[in-house]
Sequence to fold (345 residues):
Amino acid sequence: MLIFMPDGAYFLDLQCVLLHFMALTLEEIKTPIAKEMDAFEVKFRASMKTNVFLLDRVMSYIVKRKGKQMRPMFVFLSAGASGLISESTFHGASLIELLHTASLVHDDVVDSANYRRGFFSVNALWKNKAAVLVGDFLLSKGLLLSLEHNEYELLRIVSNAVKEMSEGELLQFEKARRLDITEDIYYEVIRQKTASLIASCCAVGASSSGAPEEVVAQMKQFGENVGMAFQIKDDLFDYGDDEIGKPLGIDIKEKKMTLPLIHALSKSSWWEKRKIIGTVSSNSHNPRKVKEVIEYVKASGGIAYAKQAMARYHQKALALLEDLPGSVYKDSLKQLVQFTIDRKS
Fold:
């Protein structure tokens, strides 16, 4: 049964509505895998140790400023929901976290970003050359981890994600110069850049649990839909409202075409479209002009449209879990999906 909400979003059933209002924390969601996550944390910190003083210093800095660790959670919960958590699951979670951390370090270099999660980025503190080498080190650690434990299937899954993430970045870079990203291109960019990694988390978890190929493929599709919803939520932060937070306009300042803006432009007259694109192209560092773009997008229905798209991917993700047997892992996986679209940062 679908239940429609006033803002245009809808939920798969009553259980989803209840989850929506429960607003569980990540600590509560990860209860079924709390011991595994604690053990993973110890193993992952140990794996980051190195005899090179500068490298060890950078690794320590990275580890101390880790994020929410949602991706390892997706690995462990997917494993528990589709089979049994094993030592292979720990290898998979480490491989994912190494890849994810490497991609963040490299992204900050590409974007010339000086901050990450409120702290100085690696490139801001140790310059681009060191940051690139640190990212390369993390990727090589992931490769060695896989080879040492003969985790060839997990390596295949994650390597495919690395390829797609790189392709997505380059596709966005190519299109951003002309500010001509269509909705179809936007979905392809976020599928490759963001959704491919979350898809690999869920596929790695299922594969490490001994699940059959069809279940691994199903979990990969589940993760892709979660990733699509996750990125649309991220893009909504740029416009902000009472539910999401204050307007920031970071994507506009960086000339990134996201779904709310793409939709607003598709509904605009030739003159309005030319004016908005001109502002994004030439006046994106003018706070007053950025605010004008934000207000235009809101008035054009771009925010509501993006929320509806996010809700569709959310629904698709939950539907893909229905065939899995009932378990605490499946319940937490549903709650984690809800958290990705309810989060405030």
Q: What stands out?
A: The chain has 16 helices and four strands.
